[in-house]
Amino acid sequence: GGVGKTTLASAAYAEISHSFEAHCLLENIREESSKHGLTKLQEKFLSLILKADVKVRSEIEGRSIIETRLHNKSVLVVLDDVDDLKQLKALAGSHAWFGEG
């Protein structure tokens, strides 16, 4: 903490997000993951990026939905306050999950 990374990330996101087919700024990953779990985090991510109410029954299903729905789109994903590799893998496990861009 301390150097305004969230502020910088938010400003950069606001500046360039319009250039992508789908975009999402997901804040407080550490806290959300700790309080609600990775499946709820995936639901929030998918609902924001797809602009629809998405329900996820398991982390594996969430990964599959992310890849299936976003693999052909140019996507900007900003994940703030990730503190565990599991969080990153649950939301953006591979660049192959997303289209070029």
From TrEMBL:
Pfam family example for this protein? NB-ARC
Taxonomic lineage: Eukaryota, Viridiplantae, Streptophyta, Embryophyta, Tracheophyta
Name by which UniProt lists this protein: TIR14
Q: Which GO terms describe its molecular function?
A: ADP binding
Q: Which residues form the NB-ARC domain?
A: 1-90
**Record GO biological process:** defense response
Tell me what organism the protein belongs to.
Helianthus annuus
